[in-house]
Specification:
The protein contains ten helices and no strands. By secondary structure, it is mainly alpha-helical.
């Protein structure tokens, strides 16, 4: 009986973990993967690959709006990014303008993330949660911290907003740096320097987001899960002794 119960619990944890990653896969991985597959493997033009890779996020956004009466933030953002990229694909001629247009995607993502924070639905949470919630106990602790029933809920939600704010700010700053560089740095230099700036921005986002957002959130999750385990042990202890 014990083995069967344990197996069921393990299966539930795996299912929950898969469900945590599913929105991220559908909203981000599928559209991006479809773009590169259509462009590189099937030889479609950039415009056509962007258009076809927008189908999934468009359907996801429309479904959430009509059926669930809400906006699917991540899918909507990917859709907006694709639309912006489609519009920018018409920009041609001036090499500096071509370099500057690459930062349009970063600025769109950055602004979308910051708007989601203002609206109270930090967009980066969907990407962060699977890395913090590693088992059923932490899943339960996450729920208590998010719904306000845990003592550290207010600080946890604040750190959640900070994490998205850091990434939104970093991406906007990266956009500004690349635009300035596109019109001030020699074109040949900016071709490779733009990638360095992007990698640097991602590095800053990881370090700062971890220090001010993800790190403290992980500690609070651990403390909440351990506190709940202690409470359960105290509650079960007397009955076991009897």
């Amino acid at each position: 009986m014990t083995t069967k119960t344990s197996g069921a619990m393990t299966g539930g944890t795996k299912t929950g973990k898969a469900n945590d990653f599913l929105p991220l896969i559908l909203d981000v991985a599928v559209p991006i993967g479809a773009y590169y597959l259509l462009k590189d493997s099937f030889g479609l033009s950039t415009f056509a690959a962007l258009a076809w890779s927008s189908v999934v996020p468009a359907l996801r956004t429309g479904w959430a709006a009509v059926r669930e009466r809400r906006v699917n933030g991540m899918a909507g953002l990917i859709l907006v990014v694709n639309v912006v990229s489609l519009l920018l694909s018409f920009v041609s001629g001036d090499p500096r303008l071509m370099l500057a247009k690459d930062s349009g995607v970063s600025s769109t993502v950055g602004m979308g993330i910051l708007v989601s924070v203002v609206l109270g639905r930090p967009m980066m949470t969907a990407a962060l949660k699977p890395f913090l919630v590693k088992n059923a106990a932490r899943e339960a602790a996450w729920g208590r911290l998010m719904d306000g029933t845990a003592a550290a809920s207010a600080d946890f939600r604040r750190r959640e907003r900070v994490f998205s704010t850091v990434w939104g700010g970093v991406l906007l700053a990266e956009c500004v740096v690349r635009i300035v560089g596109a019109f001030t740095v020699p074109v040949d230099t900016m071709v490779w320097l733009g990638s360095v700036v992007l990698l640097g921005a991602v590095g800053v986002g990881i370090v700062a987001g971890g220090a001010f957002g993800a790190g403290p959130m992980e500690r609070m999750l651990t403390e909440e899960a351990e506190a709940e385990a202690r409470d359960e042990f105290r509650a079960v202890g007397p009955s076991v002794a009897a």
